[in-house]
């Protein structure tokens, strides 16, 4: 398996309705509009408890502006740099790396893009990027996705360009990327950016087994745009990425992730090497 630069990626011929809002914005349907209205009604206090570990499970709310939430950001097309509001289409997050310049997301979020096509805004809220806008310089996708868009390979890394000699990890910190964790060993917190909202939402629950290679989580309101959202466990490690089966799921209430194994571990080594 080899990490591949953008120029080697192929644009998909079709995309399921759930996740990539550049293709389809699910919130235009009456059902999704109802889901979006429910999210703000939940309290930020409830979410703060969830972020700390113990707390209400299966509750989605606007993410508090914490050090952990700032490691998560939104992906945009590069031509949106001067006008970010309403332009994000997927989610990514910063993970530890020797060069302090690595983000992780779903492979289907990067598929078809070329070098310099995308930008990443960690901690994005309400049209503003308080920790800067970072150019996505190179993507690393597993062979299982690059050659056949296999759902068990729907995870990717991207190197972002430094700014002023500093990496994105210097600006917001990062999380460990951990493979080989048993599904459901602990609850995880999923934080991401629905395409119809200008702030991230978050939900904590315990993942369950969908198959040997896929895990699922029950959380409401994780609609289009949340692909690539990190699943962070109690040790603050990324143990899943929203994507995989049905590119993340065909409904807003059930989401999926690849079970990180040998392929994900090798991809991380490629991206950091």
From TrEMBL:
The keyword Signal applies. Coiled coil: none annotated. SUPFAM superfamilies: Trypsin-like serine proteases. Residues 1-50 form the signal peptide. Keywords: Signal. It comes from the Bacteria. The keyword Signal applies. Pfam families: Trypsin_2. InterPro entries: Glutamyl_endopeptidase, Peptidase_S1_PA, Peptidase_S1_PA_chymotrypsin, TRYPSIN_HIS. This is Trypsin-like peptidase domain-containing protein.
């Amino acid at each position: 398996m080899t990490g591949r630069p953008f120029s080697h990626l192929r644009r998909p011929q079709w995309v399921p309705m759930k996740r990539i809002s550049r293709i389809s914005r699910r919130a235009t349907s009456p059902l999704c509009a109802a889901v979006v209205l429910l999210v703000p009604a939940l309290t930020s206090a409830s979410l703060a408890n969830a972020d700390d570990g113990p707390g209400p499970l299966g509750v989605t709310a606007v993410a508090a502006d914490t050090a952990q939430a700032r490691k998560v950001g939104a992906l945009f097309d590069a031509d949106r740099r001067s006008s970010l509001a309403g332009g994000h289409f997927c989610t990514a997050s910063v993970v530890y790396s020797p060069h302090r310049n690595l983000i992780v997301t779903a492979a289907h979020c990067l598929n078809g893009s070329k070098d310099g096509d995308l930008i990443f805004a960690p901690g994005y809220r309400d049209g503003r990027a308080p920790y800067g806008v970072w150019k996505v310089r190179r993507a690393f996708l597993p062979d299982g996705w690059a050659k056949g868009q296999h759902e068990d390979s729907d995870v990717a890394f991207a190197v972002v360009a430094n700014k002023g000699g500093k990496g994105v990890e210097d600006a917001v910190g990062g999380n460990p990327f951990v493979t080989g964790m048993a599904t459901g060993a602990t609850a995880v917190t999923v934080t991401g950016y629905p395409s119809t909202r200008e702030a991230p939402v978050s939900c904590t629950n315990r993942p369950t087994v969908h198959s040997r290679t896929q895990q699922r989580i029950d959380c409401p309101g994780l609609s289009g745009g949340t692909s690539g959202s990190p699943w962070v466990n109690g040790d603050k490690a990324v143990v899943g990425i929203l994507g995989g089966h049905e590119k993340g799921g065909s409904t807003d209430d059930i989401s999926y992730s690849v079970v990180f194994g040998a392929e994900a571990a090798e991809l991380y080594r490629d991206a950091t090497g």
